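User: Can you predict the 3D structure for this chain?
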Amino acid sequence: MTELEQAQQQLKEVQATVDRLVEECKKSKEFEWSYVKGQTYAIWSEIVDSGYDGDHVVALKHGRLRKTKEAADDALALNMRVGRLHALAEQLGGLKEWLRWEENWYIEFYKVEYSAGYSCTVYEPEKVYMTKECAKQISKMLKDGTFKLEV
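Assistant: Here is the predicted structure, written as structure tokens:
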């Protein structure tokens, strides 16, 4: 197979993936997204891209689009805090899956400081669940400034 034929085959595979994603989005009855190319803000790993005019299907699937810069900045900050917290809990060996009727520890911001909390019955998907020891250690690190969730 020549390089041209390989490239054409890869292009067909990419187009098939895009077509599949478009169909998945069309079938979704959960929520009707209304973003206009070039008039949205895309959230990437470290930046907010204004006037995004790329592939909205993929960006929507991954929750990366917002209508205003303020919403995009807020979402980026949230994503970074959760990502840093998840990475720290993993590094400390304390990540855990949420299990009903067990103590599922997490970090919360209460009044003016971070602290460890837990739930046995309520699952909140935006929280990073960890062991009690890990939550206490991270809470201490956040309080004494050893680690910061905001960058």
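The mean pLDDT is 81. The chain is about 45% helix and 15% strand.
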